[in-house]
Amino acid sequence: MRAAAGATTTADAWNFVEGGSGGEHTMRENGLAFDRVRLLPRVAVDVAGRTARTRLLGLPVPVPLAVAPMAYQTWLHPDGEVATAAAAAAAGVPFVVSMMASRTVEDIAATGAATVMQLYWLRDRGLFRELIGRAEAAGCAALMLTVDVPLLGRRLRDMRGGLVRPATVVAANLGGAGGGAGAGRAGRSEVALHTKVLFDPSLSWADVAWVRSVTRLPLVLKGILDPDDAALAVDAGADAVVVSNHGGRQLDGAVATATALPAVVDAIAGRCEVLVDSGIRGGVDVLKALALGAAGVLVGRPLLWGLAAGGAPGVTRVFDLISEELHEAMALAGCPDVDSARRLRTSVAGGGC
Ligand SMILES: Cc1cc2nc3c(=O)[nH]c(=O)nc-3n(C[C@H](O)[C@H](O)[C@H](O)COP(=O)(O)O)c2cc1C
Question: Is Oxidoreductase found in the keyword set (predicted)?
């Protein structure tokens, strides 16, 4: 699917999707860290009637997946987020609407997908609160505050190429600020400049508590890696955290999520839900995430590959592949359900049990 997407996508859009920050060490390490996890399969367990059904972010799901928030999907397909969300609705998988989505939250919710609204901490608090109100009115099931972007990571592919969004690729929920403005040139990314104007790098735990206080929706914090931050997230009233390094797009050199996950799960000690993203590329990775203690995963780039390669049917194909792989892997690991998957033992390749 990745190869098919690469063949149909402009160089700018491909760099935007595929790129990480700095030397892309963290981006590469995300995949390697999942690869290094080894599962200890159980045997002679009846898996004839196995199911991957569970609840995620308060929602019933057929597989423990949700769509990661990803900006500007009309860059990859004219229908953008609406196509991805339609496929998510058909798969019964929740769709997290990026604050930088290129379609409105109302249009996305109209697909029938269960939605969660992702937020960045904006300088314009009026606009921030307005978006919470719109998310509530559109029927979003939760809010997801991304806490790892005081500013955009140094994405060298975008800077070198002088990345500029096409005029049609707008932040539809932020008044439609379009591409092309403040045009990029070699050494500057227009997306990074746009973000710098909008995002407030002063976010603190007191602000997180304030966000908690202005909505009755469940609050998810995305971008947690340190177990102390996980504990602070619980103290601030988070209902869930996402162990994430933003797909290696923020701090280059940050720990891989498969490495960070177990300590976060320990620190949370069942007090809220723990999800993980960054490097999930198939059903076996999902099973590994469960075995490391996650309740479920956010799927990122692979869904954008499906979108670019084939619109909504392409996204459906990616859901189907991950789901088939997960069901097969659960059978082979002796897991009749998600709870048993979460009890699987793991080791790290080259290390002990
Ligand atoms: C093209 C692209 C756009 C993204 N936009 C957002 C965003 O708007 N908000 C956010 O919280 N995370 C964003 N992310 C990060 C994803 O939510 C997720 O953490 C990341 O893609 C996981 O890594 P993976 O895709 O390599 O598995 C974006 C990622 C990509 C690839």
Answer: yes
